[in-house]
Amino acid sequence: MLDVTVIEDPEAAAVSLDPIRARLLAELAAGPASAAMLAGKVGLPRQKVNYHLKALERHGLVELAGERRKGNVTERLMRATAASYVISPLALAAVQPDPDRFRDQLSARWLLALGARLVRDVGSLITGAAKARKGLATYALDGEVRFASAADRAAFIQELTAGVGALIHKYDAPDAEGGRDHRIVVAVHPTLKPPQDPELVEHPELTES
Fold it and tell me: Which residues are paired to 33 by β-bridges?
């Protein structure tokens, strides 16, 4: 099972977004199960579960893990093909974000368009590398920083832009034979706070020790 896979096909995306099928995918990501085993967990008849499993299997979201005899019946044990799934903007190709339509380094929407392109491009690279049975050289850096003021944030972004720009200028070799172009995306955005428990918001005394 893959840790994460990218859904590029619109029909597969629609199948995965169905609430019942998404629940089945979550159950099967935890381990192989038959339609009968899943029926009790999701509260549906086995025949209905089978119907949904076949739809998921047609689009490569689940696969056969094995079979077992149970009385006079042979049960198919299914498993998810990945622990998690990401839907690529290619699934909505006609309306996918295009960061080349406008460029604004301080726009959150432009950042979102860049993020969507990152998912699309890396997803396609993963798919291609898997088909060719080759590795894929990538790198990512993830971290957090707390700025004391907006002025500090602005100074950080200025230094970051200058530093990354200097590295690009140093290593860029546009005329190198056999070289390969690489895309660099650097993003800075506020950290998203985890959702608060409504009970604790309504009764703050519950958080007191």
Answer: 78
The model's pLDDT over 131-146, given as tens digits with 9 standing for 90+, comes to 899 999 999 999 999 9
Whole-number pLDDT of residue 87: 94
Contact at 8 Å (CB) between 107 and 86? Answer: no
The span from the CA of 67 to the CA of 88, in Å, is 33
Strands 2-7, 82-87: pairing kind: parallel
Cβ(76)–Cβ(35) below 8 Å: yes
| pTM across the whole model | 0.79
116: nearest Cα among 137, 142, 136, 95: 95
Q: Which of 82, 79, 68 is nearest to 33 (CA)?
A: 79
* H or E element, residue 2: strand 2-7
Yes or no: say if 4 and 88 are a contact pair by the CB < 8 Å rule.
no
For residue range 54-86, list pLDDT tens digits in order.
999 999 999 999 988 877 878 899 999 999 999
Q: Which two tokens stand for residue 153?
A: 């944030």
Q: Which phi and psi angles does 111 have, rounded to 5°?
A: -60, -40
pLDDT at 181 over 50: yes
